[in-house]
Specification:
It is built from 13 helices and no strands. With 288 residues, it is mainly alpha-helical. The two termini are 38 Å apart.
Length: 288
């Protein structure tokens, strides 16, 4: 949907500014509702934790998405590849698993290590197949995208640590506010790198509705609620579902017949999910 917005007049920074500003304001309004606070298990943050979460949003959350949008712009210039970016994204479970082990002291039993490895392999097979991608021609764009992925993984682990001693939605609210502010500040400091432009028609704003509501408010609220009590090393296995789901959507809505590698990779990912989610789930502990 970001591509759909940029094709209709938005710059990547413009998408980020509208999306995260809208989300941060919506979250502030929703948290005034007793019903929403009850459903999401809201617990107020201490002043120090609130500023930590705001800082996470400003220095990690916002910049990671700026890197994503910047690399997407490079795709149109031939300096990056959307396909290769998906491969890099498929490595997120490995980064998150390692960071969770060190920062959250989560156990990594052999079954979950195998599940994370299989999820990465399955995501690679769906996206590339059984060959090596030609990354050298797109080194700059891939480096920026990869740095964005690592930054977002680090942000998610730090946010999970605070969520487990308070509440996910409280962390998310402060983090979104920090991310929104970063999109007002950083593009103004780097206008040549992150130019701001916006769509001028009603149709050009339609992709933003999806990015704000379904892919933003609903998805992030559910994820942060689950992270409070579930091991992050278990949840990240589900990230590998993105490539096969994209192939499934293309088949259902665009009549694109899934290739053999998509089917095989999807089966590998299903095995990874079974290994990652079946069996006993250990209880996570809050860390001060």
């Amino acid at each position: 949907m970001v591509s759909a917005a940029t094709d209709r007049g938005f710059s990547g920074a413009g998408v980020g500014l509208v999306r995260w500003t809208a989300l941060s304001l919506m979250m502030l309004v929703l948290l005034r509702s007793g019903w929403f606070r009850k459903v999401t298990g809201h617990v107020s943050l201490s002043k120090s934790d609130w500023w930590k979460c705001f800082g996470i949003g400003f220095f990690l959350f916002g910049p990671s998405h700026m890197m994503f949008y910047l690399s997407m712009g490079m795709v149109k210039q031939g300096l990056a590849s959307e396909l290769e970016g998906t491969v890099i994204l498929a490595m997120a479970p490995i980064f998150t698993g390692l960071l969770s082990y060190f920062f959250l002291h989560e156990r990594l039993p052999a079954r979950r290590v195998v599940a994370i490895a299989l999820s990465c392999i399955g995501g690679y097979i769906v996206t590339i197949g059984f060959a090596f991608p030609s990354l050298l021609g797109h080194a700059k764009g891939n480096l920026i995208f990869g740095l964005g992925v690592v930054t977002e993984c680090l942000m998610g682990v730090i946010a999970a640590r605070i969520s487990r001693r308070s509440s996910g939605v409280a962390v998310l609210s402060a983090q979104m506010l920090g991310g929104g502010v970063s999109f007002w500040v950083i593009p103004l400091l780097l206008p040549s790198v992150l130019p701001l432009s916006f769509g001028s028609t009603f149709v050009s704003w339609l992709p933003l509705l999806y990015l704000i509501f379904l892919s933003g408010l609903v998805t992030f609220t559910i994820w942060y609620r689950i992270v409070e009590s579930a091991p992050l090393t278990q949840l990240v296995v589900g990230i590998a579902l993105q490539p096969p789901l994209a192939a499934l959507i293309g088949w259902l809505f665009k009549n694109e017949i899934p290739k053999q590698n998509a089917v095989i990779g999807g089966c590998v990912i299903l095995v990874a999910l079974a290994l990652g989610f079946l069996g006993k789930t250990e209880k996570v502990e809050a860390i001060d």
